């Protein structure tokens, strides 16, 4: 029987956390056996860390700590120091740092675009340095920021790589990330026919480079627009991916799970 890992799900967000055990029971029934839970900043670090002890389920939850570029307003000057201490304290239960990254859209929409972008890059690069020090992979958010993200990753020279969350780029962009030792998070984007560029890219990529994700409760799949996303839909992402590929479903599923195991040392 096939089994699945959602490599990116915000289980602590209200849409999911208020019925956490029901969510996980549904996942269990769909053979979604593992969920990676990134955090977004100091405001939810403790909540994400406590999720595995709150869940009455056999679904394994893996917390990650990071600072998302959407949540930099009001960030304390010592936030990176706080993060460093928390990583050291919880090293045994952390499999990655994130969600972190650079978002060109929110920088452009801010009152001071250049300043905002520079702040994002600084916080991102400081977290990459922590990942390097603690020898952990990273989960990277990117939107209209491919050149900046690649530049920062090249400079960081990470030994443990990570995941490019919600990959939606070209084959050339994908190749740059693969060359840096990263896996690509494939989510609901490929269920939208209009996402031709991403679909064509995903068809050509080596299966050793792919992981599945939902980004629940965000990024609903085609047909579910306007609804909160759910980690059970990682199975639907898999079905969409399988329809684009020539591999047998069992081989595809096993390889994707092996990719997760390899990256996170599970």
Which SSEs are present, and which pair or pack?
Blueprint: E1 4-6, H1 14-17, H2 20-29, E2 32-37, H3 42-54, E3 60-63, H4 79-89, E4 97-103, H5 104-109, H6 113-134, E5 138-143, H7 146-156, E6 162-164, H8 171-179, E7 182-186, H9 196-204, E8 210-212, H10 234-244, H11 249-264
Parallel strand pairs: 1-2, 2-3, 4-5, 5-6, 6-7, 7-8
Pfam families: TatD_DNase (PF01026)
Organism: Thalassotalea euphylliae
Binding site for a divalent metal cation 1: 8, 10, 99, 215
Q: Which features would summarize this protein structure in a list?
A:
Metal_Hydrolase, metal-binding, 5-stranded parallel β-sheet, hydrolase activity, acting on ester bonds, TIM Barrel, 266 residues, alpha/beta, 3-stranded parallel β-sheet
Query: Could you tell me how far the N terminus lies from the C terminus, measured between alpha carbons in angstroms?
Result: 20 Å
Q: Could you tell me the strand content as a percent range? A: 5-15%
Low-confidence spans: none
SS content category: alpha/beta
User: From the alpha-carbon coordinates, what is the Rg to the nearest angstrom?
Assistant: 17 Å
Question: What's the CATH architecture name?
Answer: Alpha-Beta Barrel
Output the CATH homologous superfamily: Metal-dependent hydrolases
Separate helix tally: 11
Spatial strand order of the main sheet: 4-5-6-7-8
Characterization of the model:
By secondary structure, the protein is of the alpha/beta class. It has 11 helices and 8 strands. Helix content is 46%, strand content 14%. The strands form 2 sheets. The chain has a 5-stranded parallel beta sheet, sandwiched between helices. Strands 1-2-3 form a 3-stranded parallel beta sheet, with helices on both faces. Helix 4 runs parallel beside helix 6 and helix 6 (113-134) runs parallel beside helix 7 (146-156). The two termini are 20 Å apart. The mean pLDDT is 97.
């Amino acid at each position: 029987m096939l089994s699945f890992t959602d490599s990116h799900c915000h289980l602590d967000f209200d849409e999911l956390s208020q019925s956490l055990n029901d969510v996980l029971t549904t996942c269990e029934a769909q053979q979604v056996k593992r969920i990676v839970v990134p955090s977004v900043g100091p405001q939810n670090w403790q909540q994400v860390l406590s999720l595995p002890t709150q869940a009455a389920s056999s679904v394994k939850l893996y917390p990650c700590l990071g600072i998302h570029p959407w949540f930099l307003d009001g960030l304390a000057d010592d936030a990176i120091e706080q993060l460093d201490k928390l990583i050291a304290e919880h090293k045994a239960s952390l499999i990655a740092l994130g969600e972190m990254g650079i978002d060109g859209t929110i920088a452009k929409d801010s009152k001071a675009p250049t300043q905002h972008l520079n702040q994002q890059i600084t916080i991102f690069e400081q977290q990459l340095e922590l990942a390097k020090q603690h020898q952990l992979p990273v989960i990277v958010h990117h939107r209209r920021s491919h050149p900046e993200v690649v530049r920062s990753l090249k400079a960081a020279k990470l030994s443990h790589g990570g995941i490019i969350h919600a990959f939606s780029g070209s084959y050339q962009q994908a190749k740059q990330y693969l060359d840096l030792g990263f896996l690509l998070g494939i989510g609901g984007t490929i269920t939208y026919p209009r996402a031709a560029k991403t679909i064509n890219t995903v068809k050509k990529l080596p299966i050793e480079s792919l992981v599945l994700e939902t980004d629940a409760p965000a990024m609903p799949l085609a047909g579910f627009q306007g609804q909160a996303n759910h980690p059970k839909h990682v199975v639907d992402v898999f079905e969409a991916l399988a329809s684009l590929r020539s591999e047998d479903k069992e081989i595809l599923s096993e390889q994707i799970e092996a990719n997760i195991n390899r990256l996170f040392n599970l």
